Amino acid sequence: MSSRLIGFVLAVVVVLVLAIGAISAVVIVRGGGGEGEEQRAQPTEGAAGEGDENEGKDRGGTAGELRLPGADPITLDPALAVDAESATYIVEIFGGLVTIDLGLNIVPDIAKELPTRENGGIVDNLDGTVTYTFHLRDNVVFHNTNRLVTASDFKYSLERALDPSTASPVAEAYLGDIVGARDMARGRAEEVRGIEVVDDFTLKITIDAPKPYFLAKLTYPTAFIVDRKQVESDPRNWTRKPNGTGPFKMGEWSLGERIVLEANDRYHLGPPSLETVTYLLAGGSVLTMYETGDIDVAGVGINDIDRVADPTSDLNAEYLTGDDLSISYIGFNTQVEPFDDPKVRQAFAHAIDREKIAQVVLKDMLPVAQGIMMPGLPGYNPESEALAFDPELARRLLAESKYGGPDRLPTVTLTEVGGGAVVGFDTQAMVEMWKENLGVEVELEQTEAATFFEDLDAGRLHMFLAAWIMDYPDPEGIVDIKFHSKSRLNDPRYGNPELDALLEEARTEQDVNRRMSLYQQAEKIIVEEAVWVPLYYGRDHVLVKPYVKGFQSPPMVIPRLRYITIER
Amino acid sequence: MQGILPYVLRRLLWAPLILFAVSFITFTVARFGPGDPISVAMGQFRDPEALARVRHEKGLDKPLLEQYRIYMWGVLHGDLGESFRFRDRPVSDIIFPKMWVSAQLGLVALIITFGIGIPVGVLAALRQGTWVDPASISTFLFFQSVPVLVTVPVMLLVFVVKLGWLPTGGWDGIFSKHIVIPALALSMPGIAGVARLMRATTLDVLKEDYVRTARAKGLREFTVVSRHVARNALLPMTTIIGISLVTLLEGAFFTETLLGIPGIGRLAFDSVTSRDYDIILGLTLVLATAFITANIVIDIAYTFIDPRVRYGRSAAA
User: Fold this and answer.
1) Mutate to test the interface with B, among A453, A471, A476, A556 (most CBs of B within 10 A)
2) Contacts of B274 in chain A (CB under 8 A)
3) So what's the ipTM on this one?
4) What's this model's pTM, rounded to 2 decimal places?
5) Does residue B228 sit in helix, strand or coil?
């Protein structure tokens, strides 16, 4: 090859590279897109397949199909589910006695109505136990087999959840109030005495004390029913195509690729309007997929929120937020110096300006938390006020503490979950604020999740960043579980007899108002003693295509697909 | 060929020993690290008693050697264990389909990388001393310097969002449009390296007497290059190509994550962070076996490619 030819070829390559670079730059800078995007916004008439020659137009799925981003569930066995991802599918495929509606109210599912004391469904026994009587619907059938659901299915499923050979990490937590449940979980009994099958459609469950939050705990997957015949005939693989009683049944599950749920036309509360729901599990750039029409709903992260929240942007009309029943916070290990001194904790709390961080760093994506209980949770106190940003007060408190000031403080480390490469700006901001307002240099440590939880459980951390998501809509699930001195999940290892008394009274208080007031008093103590510094409540940000109607971002993982319709 | 069979046999005898050592070390290190799959899977609701009971059910509280024995016994029967993260799913069901996807993608990328890199390297060597030499390789250095995390979003923006030519991601087999962006992203960075290597070996070959002889004989330059130079310059590359084939099984984490490709890279990373012991071990064993096999195959291949190479007692030149 002559030098000239080579030179020519190379020049072509270089020119191509430069041209692509230039075109990319122009195309990127122009923003807003050209005609290509306009066309895509118009759906084509008639059935649209995926990936046909008409790319660039609406790449929508078939009519009646909703496409969402999702992740692989850890398991589809309701007895074993502990994470939100698995729960997302489980609540659509399975059902139990009661469920939660979009307003976060507990409503009957397979039970005909909620048992109350007024209708005789709840009876207080002489020995202090309480018996709930559930009358079941007589028209609930399992997917695929169409077998009628009876009360013995409940006894089987609940006992299976508690059976030690099922190895459920959470059954005891959610079902442990039932008389005899703990015995079964520990292998001391072959059945649960407190669950009684009266007849095919009547079930009695007896719990050990009058606990108002019991029905709320029954909304969690451990109380859902599974098909005994299916589980026993295929104990290893039945979850690949489970028989549930929920509004949707499992159509297809390709690991790492997609899950397709199909509508259950025989659903006892009314068949869903959607035909199928496809969860795309492979990940990828979700927002890009949304913009090209490959997906109907997309989450919005902090890098894209400016573009989406801008009222002049096309995407803004499709932008939806939903408050979550979750909270992120700073926890202090109250058994370790210097955080054994409440004045030190309070000083740290007063030294950070959470409002500013939320506004500047988090771009107002998350509401600032003023208490432990979040909006939407029964017991939420809108008047609750977290310790306010007050640097002078902070310095004074530190001076009044047993250390007398920042110089005599031992080294303080803030631990969070992370990869170690990058520190979030919000964390950085807090560390800066402590330095500036308190004169304390806080060291930052990042560990990955498994190590973090182990260190937390062993009491090795000083202060830590963590979050809590409500498992059921009752304040007991946070105020009691995270702060009672005997609770295993009390990470700050905080022991306050006055607080304990309030919590124990609230466990069995029947009057709703009085009960909530007890939790609010408990919350006040927790906030004032700075056991936690509440940071932000959870909030979801999603984009939803205009042809998807009835989509909500609910505060908890609850069944919601059956309320959605597609109108093209 | 005389010496090759005992040589291969000797190498094969070492293989199980190596595999045992690799698996034992991985097994031990994983289990001695902080955390375990059960506590990770449990997430925020961590009850030590419940954890202990589940660990017992899964056999995680047995002594280390006992657990290892149980595991290896299973492996010898073809059972790679079960995942903790994807509860009760067999490890082989999980890793092999994903490895296949990653391998297909990696193969296409490899073909591009070597397909472009080798000729460019030879070219640069042939034109050493002229401007062609540095210019040709530098052109591809651009792609080596820009990380995948940058090239993929740019390609997505240009080809998918603005132009609509290609799909956003996902996987539809090796012959679909889905392969374009990931294959490009994965292949471009490697070209410069391959080219430089090829250039170096070609330069060595060009100095050899037989090249001068071939030219002196009046052969056309193209024949000299293709028949004499390239074949000899490719020899050292054989090892590289062979090992690269094994790395196909490793997958590419960033590319797979950004483009939603169900490959093994993402799985491997997630399995480590969630302490999914059996998947980690399964992956390690498969990769170790592949490496050992590849090495033996490359060594055998050498005897065919380079007649000067002999093993065993008759190795004297």
Assistant:
1) A453
2) 449-450
3) 0.72
4) 0.79
5) helix
